[in-house]
Amino acid sequence: MPVLEKRLTQVRRHRAGTTVLDTLVIAVCAAVTATVHLVTTEAASVVGVADPLLVAVVTVAAVTTAWGASLALLRGASHRHGSGERYELLPILHSATIAIAALAIIEGTAGWTVLPAHLSLTLPAGVAVLVGTRLGRRSRLTSHRTTHALAPRTLVVGDRGCVEQVVRSLTADPRFAHHVVGVAVNGGEDTIRVDGTGYRVVGSPDTVAERARELCIETVIVAGGSDDPDYVRKLSWSLEGAATDLILATRLADVARSRIAFERTDGLALTHVSIPRFDQSTLSAKRVLDVVVALVALVPIAVITPIIALLIRMDTPGGVFFRQRRIGRDGREFSILKFRTMTTTAERDRAALEAQNEGAGPLFKMKNDPRVTRVGAVLRRFSLDELPQFWNVLRGDMSVVGPRPPLPSEVRDYDEQVLRRLYVQPGITGLWQISGRSDLSWEQSVRLDLHYVENWSVATDLRIILRTAQVMVRPKGAY
To answer: Where's the Bacterial sugar transferase domain (predicted)?
Structure first.
């Protein structure tokens, strides 16, 4: 029990500290806006007969109270769903909307013209700073030894195979979405091991409710495998009053939320999954985005190309650019264009290095490849060697965002599932690049590519482009 009390104390302190920091950020942003508003605008034209200082104090108090209180409540609800990035941002945006609504009510009833100033200053500044503080705290907590103490305490229940799969998926996420305290399986074992880590068996599926109360479990995840069709309903009844959430794990992996809809009929819950679309209209929208981004990107690329070219020629003899045959959409071959990062004999020398291959699956990769030049190592680290590929995008051979463009020799080893990567144009960047690049296993790379192929959207492409800029500044897995 002392361990649980310590954990609850840590959680309360963390939430209280976050609430105080959030409220302070909101108050400062609102106060700065009110001050600027008073200084730059004639008071009489803004507040009428009211005291300008009184108006400023009231509006700051209203924004701080409405935004801070709603954010604390919404953040508490999001905590119950884990600690993913989506549940960090949505409470901030939702609570900001509530604060603006409160200001609109004040302006409508009192006749004070204060909403435009807070819309243009407090809202963007507050959201930006709140997101920044979230990222800072997350970075600190991820490397802190008490990280798991702040995540929802989770119990996974089901047959052994399903439980292992769910635990493996939960622990593979570095964002500590859940802290798996134990598992409930039949078989009488004391511990099950998943990828080398042992998880305590705290009971059987029939004793989950009792164990959840004893261990202060916040989330029970049903991994499936029960022979009783009413098991989930009975479990939800037994968890009443236990302050515990119930989550049903499904095998609908890598399906975007926008493709899933739920419907309830008599005694049955139906899950609708939309089939991926690869029609001409959606591909045309992607092509328009590619052309716009490529045209914008090629302007600064044209400026820095002479500098990079000079460095490459001064470092080692040979050409500036490197061309190689790759496979594009529907299996069509094209010539990819990159800045040269290896010696001119790199292709010939590869055979002698095959035994030292560190790549995943059919990929050939070496962290300390002797063929890479000094300038090439820098270009690769910051992904600058791929900048000429924007010309491939403009030509229509590639997309800005998409799966990694494979070599013909790699495609010959693809099975039917992996061939789905060729349903869309390969990309300069993609989920594989912002998720670790060469540090990923072959299975992880394929899964990310297939997830993108089946769930891509213009909004997804824009989000990946923005995250790519962050990865280029803080590279990981690039060699």
So the answer is: 286-473
